[in-house]
Each structure stands twice: as C-alpha cells, then as structure tokens.
C-alpha cells in the first residue's frame, strides 16, 4: 500500500465507537519481468486478530465464482527486483524455482527487515530467538493461522506458502508469517432522475457504483482498506476502514457520528458477498512474512443507507467519491479484479 504506516498517529490512534464491521491490495504494473513496477497499498497499522480470522460470525455468503488464483500459480509481485522502500535487490527467482519443493542449493537471498520494524513498535514482532511465537495457531492476541492452511517452518521461521520471494526477514511487515488485512467494497446502483436503475448503453446491464478513494501517495484510485488491528475482528476492521477513509469519521461531530453509525450499521449488517479471502501477491512479501486479506462487498440495494451520506476523504485519502464500476476505469490491478467479481455477482455491467 503506501508508506502511511509511518504516519505520526499509527500508535495510540483514537478508535471510534462507530465501528462494527477493513485484504491488502497490491499492485504490480503489468510488464515483462524483471522490469516490474510494484507498489503496495495497505496501511500497516498493527497486527492480527484476537481469535482466528474468520467471517463465520458475519452475515456473509459466497458463490461458485472463482475468486482466488490457483495456489499453483507462482506469485509475481512478491518477486519484484527491488524490495519496496529500500535499496535491497531480491535474489532472482525464476518461475520454476519458486516452490519450496524444488531443491535449489544456490538460493542465497539477503535478509532484510525495515529499520522501523526493528524498533519494535506495538504492531511488530521481536526478532526470532528473542521470543517464542506459536505459529499456525492463535498465539495470545495474535492470530498466526493462514488462509492457505498450515505453513511450513525452517530454522524456527515460517515459510511463505506460495514459495520463494528472493528476500528473507520481514521487510516492511510487522509479523512473522501471515499479516492480515481487510477491504470493504461498498456499492450501490446508479439511478436516473426518477430513481430507476441506469442501464449501460452497450451491455444493457444496470450500472453499479462503488466508494473509491484516491491515494495521496500515488494519485491512483482504490477501494478503502487497512490492516486488522490486534484483538480486532475482521468485521470491525471492514467498517472502521470505510468510516475512517471514506467518511472521515475521525473528525466529525458526535451528532454526525451517531447518524453515520446508524446508517453504516444497517449496511454492514446486511448480507455481504465475500469477494476474496486468502494470500495476497504483495511486493512487501518475503520468504518469512506475507500479506493475506478478506475483501467483502456490502451493497446498498435500496440506496437509503450510506448512499445518502456525504463522502469525505480521511487522512489516507486525497479524494473520495462514488465511481461507476467499469472495466475501463483504472484501478490497482487486484482491485479491478475484485470489482469484476462483484459486477458478475450482482449481474451488473462490467
């Protein structure tokens, strides 16, 4: 995502009572390797949840639509030649050497952990050896389970379930092993002056609109999202991130907060479509730390919950607005795929 995890308020930030129900997304500009331009887009705030990251307590549903790339596909963004935010060059890993099952004695990657992470902020683990984490389980207030299933260990360190990345350590990530995030995709129908659904001139399908934020760091449009805080349920993260980034709920008056709370609670208690849950091919990933996310679509079908609320950009967003869901609208690559899946589920134009 962005370097906003470095912002001054990542520690002790006021959490609103206005929270109920926030999967990294990443971007890698298409192109032939090794000339891959990668960027990342999740606020790194803290860590994982108190219990295993599960959405069973939420009113979610899934369909038969394939929402995740096959685990056999080698990750690409996680092998960007230069690790983001550093001068560290990754050890070049060809497609046929990504899997850990491939014997490769010549593989000698550099170890890198960002200096900020090494300062032991509240959202980061200490170095292996100075503490004894319990991997593949809930470890106190940190959920170290993975959506990918049980991951392997080597020299007391977890191994990336999707294989080699060309660098060891944690890089910019705080946790050894999985680092969990969440992305709320809030949509409504585009309507005409009479309140009827607007049909696309070519596809003749109804047009969806989604809440999109323009990132301050790169000027690109994206879905709001962020890291799951320690002791926080994914449902809480989803609503918190939407409230903070799209409605600027950190600075509004108590009366406005109460109004927004009612509207958002109504929307986030409605059935949500789980668009994606799993590993994220993120340029911050290393052999020992990686991003995972849950992306959920909440649809304001009647247009009377959040659709009527004034959008206001939060501290991580330069702008925020309702945007038509269309394949021609430029978004971070992974979010474009998320929106395509939402459009198919809602039988809307894409």
From TrEMBL:
SUPFAM superfamilies: Nudix. It comes from the Eukaryota. One of its GO terms (molecular function) is ADP-ribose diphosphatase activity. It catalyses: ADP-D-ribose + H2O = D-ribose 5-phosphate + AMP + 2 H(+). Residues 1-28 form the signal peptide. The keyword Signal applies. Residues 189-345 form the Nudix hydrolase domain. Keywords: Signal. Coiled coil: none annotated. It is an enzyme of class 3 (hydrolase). Its EC number is 3.6.1.13. Residues 151-174 are annotated as: Disordered. Monomer. Interacts with GLOD4. Hydrolyzes ADP-ribose (ADPR) to AMP and ribose 5'-phosphate. Belongs to the Nudix hydrolase family. NudF subfamily. PANTHER family: ADP-RIBOSE PYROPHOSPHATASE, MITOCHONDRIAL (PTHR13030:SF8), NUDIX HYDROLASE (PTHR13030). This is ADP-ribose pyrophosphatase, mitochondrial. It comes from Pogonophryne albipinna.
């Amino acid at each position: 995502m962005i370097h906003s995890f470095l912002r001054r308020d990542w520690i002790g930030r006021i959490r609103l009572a206005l929270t109920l129900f926030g999967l990294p997304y990443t971007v890698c500009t298409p192109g032939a390797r090794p000339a891959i331009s990668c960027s990342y887009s999740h606020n790194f705030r803290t860590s994982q949840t108190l219990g295993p990251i599960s959405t069973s307590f939420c009113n979610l549903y899934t369909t038969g639509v394939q929402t995740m790339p096959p685990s056999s596909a080698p990750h690409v963004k996680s092998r960007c030649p230069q690790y983001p935010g550093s001068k560290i060059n990754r050890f070049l890993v060809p497609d046929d050497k990504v899997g850990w099952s491939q014997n490769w004695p010549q593989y000698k990657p550099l170890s890198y952990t960002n200096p900020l992470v090494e300062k032991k902020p509240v959202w980061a683990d200490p170095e292996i050896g100075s503490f004894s984490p319990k991997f593949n389980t809930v470890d106190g207030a940190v959920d170290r389970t993975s959506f990918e299933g049980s991951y392997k260990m080597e020299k007391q360190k977890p191994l990336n379930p999707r294989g080699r990345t060309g660098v060891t350590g944690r890089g910019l990530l705080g946790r050894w092993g999985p680092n969990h995030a969440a992305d709320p995709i809030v949509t409504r129908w585009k309507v005409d002056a009479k309140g009827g659904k607007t049909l696309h001139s070519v596809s003749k399908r109804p047009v969806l609109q989604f809440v999109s934020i323009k990132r301050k760091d790169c000027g690109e449009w994206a879905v709001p999202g962020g890291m799951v805080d320690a002791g926080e349920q994914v449902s809480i993260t989803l609503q918190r991130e939407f409230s903070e980034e799209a409605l600027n709920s950190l600075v509004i008056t108590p009366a406005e907060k109460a109004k927004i709370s009612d509207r958002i609670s109504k929307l986030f208690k409605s059935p949500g479509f789980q668009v994606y849950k799993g590993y994220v091919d993120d340029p911050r990933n290393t052999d020992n730390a990686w991003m995972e996310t849950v992306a959920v679509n909440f649809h304001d079908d009647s247009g009377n919950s959040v659709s009527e609320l004034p959008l206001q950009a939060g501290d991580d967003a330069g702008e925020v607005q309702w945007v038509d869901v269309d394949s021609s609208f430029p978004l971070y690559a992974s979010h474009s795929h998320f929106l395509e899946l939402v459009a198919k589920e809602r039988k809307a134009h894409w």
